[in-house]
Design brief:
Layout: E1 7-14, E2 21-25, E3 36-37, E4 40-42, H1 49-61, E5 64-77, E6 82-94, E7 105-108, H2 123-133
Parallel strand pairs: 1-6
Antiparallel strand pairs: 1-4, 2-3, 2-7, 5-6
The chain binds 8-OXO-2'-deoxyguanosine-5'-triphosphate and magnesium ion (MG).
8-OXO-2'-deoxyguanosine-5'-triphosphate binds near residues 9, 42 and 85.
Family: Belongs to the Nudix hydrolase family.
Organism: Pseudidiomarina salinarum
Keywords: DNA damage, DNA repair, DNA replication, Hydrolase, Magnesium, Metal-binding, Mutator protein
Length: about 140
């Protein structure tokens, strides 16, 4: 596969006032179906990744991102797809977080994240979130 076949995805880690993280479950028929994910989606042709993050989080979660900082960038090759996940930590947003696409969703504490089944590429995201919460461990 050429590198242009890699799917570029903007992903947001949203935390609430209790320090819980928003996750939702991918629809069964999708790639990596039934697994849990952080909200986000494909960056469109010519779109800036930060704009894509804002657009996807508005579409999927009904919030307006006001500030976000890069958390990690992951290149991962699944058997059937290659992805580039551009992961951001959302540090300021307005609106109430909802799930607008009929996906099951939850707020989970950082230690609880480890109990959910995520796509393989997400392990690095979870490690980064845990590092932020428990530096030095
Ligand atoms: N949103 C999201 N996608 C992830 C995560 N981990 C992971 O491997 N992926 C992969 C699964 C998919 O192959 C790809 C995202 O594609 P998607 O189908 O959800 O994109 P989308 O929301 O723009 O949906 P679409 O309407 O364009 O199909 O990234 C994650 O935590 N969140
Ligand atoms: Mg999506």
């Amino acid at each position: 596969m050429a590198s242009s076949d890699r799917i570029h995805v903007a992903v947001g880690v949203i935390e609430n006032a209790d320090g819980h993280i928003f996750i939702s479950r991918r629809h069964q028929h999708l790639h990596q179906g039934d697994k849990w994910e952080f909200p986000g989606g494909k960056v469109e042709q010519g779109e800036e990744v930060y704009r894509a993050l804002c657009r996807e989080l508005l579409e999927e979660c009904n919030i307006e991102v006001q500030d976000a900082t890069p958390l990690t960038v992951i290149h991962h090759d699944y058997a059937d797809k290659r992805v580039l996940l551009d992961v951001w930590r959302v540090t300021r947003f307005s609106g109430q977080v909802q799930q607008r696409e009929g996906q099951e969703w939850r707020w989970v504490s950082v230690p609880e994240l480890g109990a959910y089944r995520f796509p393989e590429a997400n392990q690095d995201i979870i490690d980064k979130i845990q590092d932020l919460n428990f530096p030095g461990f």
